[in-house]
Here is the input.
Amino acid sequence: MPVVGLEWFLVIAAFLFATGVFTILTRKNAVSILMGVELILNAANVNLVAFSRFVKPAATLGPQSVEFPLQGSAAHAVYGQPWIAGNVFAAFVIVLAAAEAAVALGLILGIYRTAGDVDVDEATALKG
Amino acid sequence: MIAALGLAVKNPATWVFLAFAAVTCGSALVVAVSRSLVYSAYALLLTFFGVAGLYAFLDADFLAAAQLLVYVGGILVLILFGVMLTHKIRDINLSNESTNPVVGAVISGFLFLALAYVSLMTDWQVVEHPASATSGEIGRAFVGKYLLPFEVSSVLLLGALIGAAYLARREKREA
Amino acid sequence: MSHGHDDHGHGAPAHGAAGHGHGSAHGHQAHAAPAGLSPGLFVMLGAVALGAWLFKSGVDGHLAVGGRSFDLADLFDSPWPSLTILGLPLLAAFVQAFVGRFLPRRGDWVSTGAVAIGLGISLLMFGRMIGIYDWQFQKVYEIDWIGLFTRGTPDGPDVTTFRIPMGILIDNVTVIMLLVVTLVSTLVHVFSMGYMSDDPRYSRFFAFLSIFTFSMLGLVLCHNVFALYMFWELVGLSSYLLIGFWFEKKSAADAQKKAFLTNRVGDIGMLLGILLLFHFTGQLTYTGIFEGVAQGANGMPLWLLTAAGCLLFCGAIGKSAQFPLHIWLPDAMEGPTPVSALIHAATMVAAGVYLVTRMFPVFTPDALVVVAYFGGFTAIFAATIALCANDIKKVLAYSTVSQLGYMIMGLGASAYTYGFFHLWTHAFFKACLFLGSGSVIHAVHTQDMREMGGLWKKMPITFVAMLVSTLAIAGVPGTSGFASKDGILGDLLYAAQHNRAFWPVVVFGFAGAALTAFYMFRLIFMTFAGEPRVREKFDHAHESPWVMAAPLVVLGALAMTSQYVPFRELVGPPPSAAKKAIALVQGPSAEPAAAAHAGPGEAHAAPSHADPRRPWHDPLEHDKHHAHQLAMILSIAVAAAGIGLSCFTYLVPFISAPKIAAAVPWAHSLLLNKYYVDEFVDELLVAPCLWLARFCARFDLKVVDFCVNAWGYIVLAWAWASGLFDNKVVDGAVNGTADVVQSAGASLSRFQTGRVRTYLAWSLAGVLVLVGGFHIVTNWKHFRSRNVSTAPPGK
Here is the structure.
């Protein structure tokens, strides 16, 4: 087992999440808000990996008898390790974060070019 | 919890973990409150490093590496480019003013308390895992059960790449 | 097509109808027939014959095509027929949205074809339902949409902690609703081909119609409240999109916003009701909730169950435009008229009635009384407003509100079968009336009835169809409306005879029936009878092309015939044990009252259980017979009175309406201004917010400043020696207070800034308050033991 328990990771993730929310809530600079979003994504990832590490995997991933199949066993060859799902999900989140950052920065550059500023409060051209 | 804490303190690995946690949380705080945008960006770098360390403590070796490669190597560089491209060089302070810090602090503070409360009060059904390297397993999952999402995410990345290039390219000057 | 006309919804230029492909006989002759023996007539007859053949095949249980026979016995044994009906409009919506513009005829055949195929399958299913003839028929197909598990005992099986099932429920109510939705939707699609033909956003209109059809079909097919809520919001969205279809008009854009926001108010209540039921039963499916409630719902107190019912009913209040949230529906008439017929008359607004029908077993007797009062009051309230309206669509809108009130009132009085029956009949005659009004508006380019008159000569088909539907809505014997409305009134009378609380509702019901007859015939007389009031509009009027007239004919025919469906044998309240449990909780003294409006099928359902194939019979039938006889006499009398009065006022000017209005000017202006409900809402909701902001500002200015000054003087006088020190400390505290108050005031006034960040902050704060409050309320007993279980209580 890891040196510390699940709760530690959850609390750290909660702290990251709260700081991310704080950043989004208080910043006017679009780049800053993007940083806040990245913090929140990281918090979610820490949670996912921690649950993947500590909590029993969902039974839907395979028969219950092969919760932790041995390396080289037939069950392992078919299902892999069911608990890896959390890690896989986190990997997908990282991919999505990369895509999101690229597109968001494209948008920010576009706004900067048209408005000359990246203050989100000033970007009101589409406001009804 | 308290007893576990007492046991853990004697383990030197715990101190390493605490150091990583402190780096993560402290730099995240800097990201949130720093008045300079560049400081925020560099603090975000530290946060990403810290989270990578946490992954290592969670035996998620692949993710720790991916965190360093993608976040630190990719996303952070993107963000730094964003900072530099959207500000003029002569803005030394790169103003990063914040609004409504009281409201934000109250809301995010309570959010943290609520999340921490749930984390600490829930009776988690923790189970023993056989510790093993995750890279192979993740690879197996990517080409097995999660093949479709894997391919879809690759298409998404391509789409994001094209979209970002399209959004960011310099507009054609019309005569 | 020019937009921005104020007086009529579809903004064709004044003489633009001449450009119609089908309008071959819009001449100035008096008897302009719609295109004579055009192909449209044959297409319509062929379609009706095809529909009848499909229905007959469904009843027989096999489909004979060219000598080969397909067995339909297992039509309900797979979810695919229903899912096809559901999926085709969604597919059509995507096709229309993305490539519709480039298709021939701008793609209207895609949407129309999709829903027409759905109609064909619905007719087969409807026929099969009649063929099976089992009032307890029910099929459920479900999958686990979301399922979470935790370990039970170390080696034991896992415990499901949380699951959201997704699936469809097919029973007689579903099949009937499927037919209503696909039939009215198909006819409206066909009508729109003519009505919208000049619109530049023609293909988008059909895409929206398809989205709506999909959402509405999903709403009636789904088997759990979670999906119900999703589709509930989706129909709200499509309603929003279609009301504001001509968004260039400010009135249309305002109306769509008003409709959406007003519905939100009701939907919050509905969501809370769903959450309450989920919290106590741990179930999301209808059957699961009913069983959970019947088994006592883990100690859910009766008053809370009543509250859950009332909260669910809030959703119906919003969607079915019941008082006080009815304000959006008349404004929604800004949308194109086919939309008014489909969404705001026949199907979506009936979703509230469907909700109460579906969730009927969770409504306690007390909740049903609340339901009945809301419905009854709305029925008469809206009817009085319709008396004075001059806009033909507004009259129909208030008439819709009133008729929905009838359905709700009927359900509240446990007239389960008749309430739902009225939904069925009303869908056809009201859709016919709306499409007829669309046809009239198309012809004369105005919505003001004072500019019409004498149109029966120009538009005979529209006139006959609308007259037939008006007879139905007025409750003239022999029409569908008579059968359903009379049934509701009879059951109401019966309920009132056993429970005095229902007497006011009965009075509302009968008075509303008289008013309905009066104002509907006023509409007919003002529009079609008498001499034309505005000569040039009359001269331009012409019968609509067949593509618009055919749906009118079909719907008019249905207005006369739709009462022959064996509703009383096929639609009974679900035999839930819920009502029994409630009667037990209330004790034997409450038994008669509970039985009176718990209605049939609960306490008396035991014989039916023995033989599920036996058609359902109302066990109280014998008792009710007397009440129904009386109700029939009364309702014929009030309908006759209403029609007669209308004749004497508007056909034969024997009574002068302006004189009556002049005699009671206050009543007239009250009705003209719709009882000032809109103004009242402004005063009640908007004004207090402004007042609060002003109060905060004044508090800051007067009280806090006064404190500052007072403190300053006191400190100066009292402590000369430590003045400097005191000044800093005290002023710091005081300024801090002022800052807090000021920033509170500022954040209050910043409530609606259009800044996403502010909204995020508010929604997060709301989530925190909700989660915290919920946690404290539900777990305060467990706080001492600190044993917070993740499983639902009682598991």
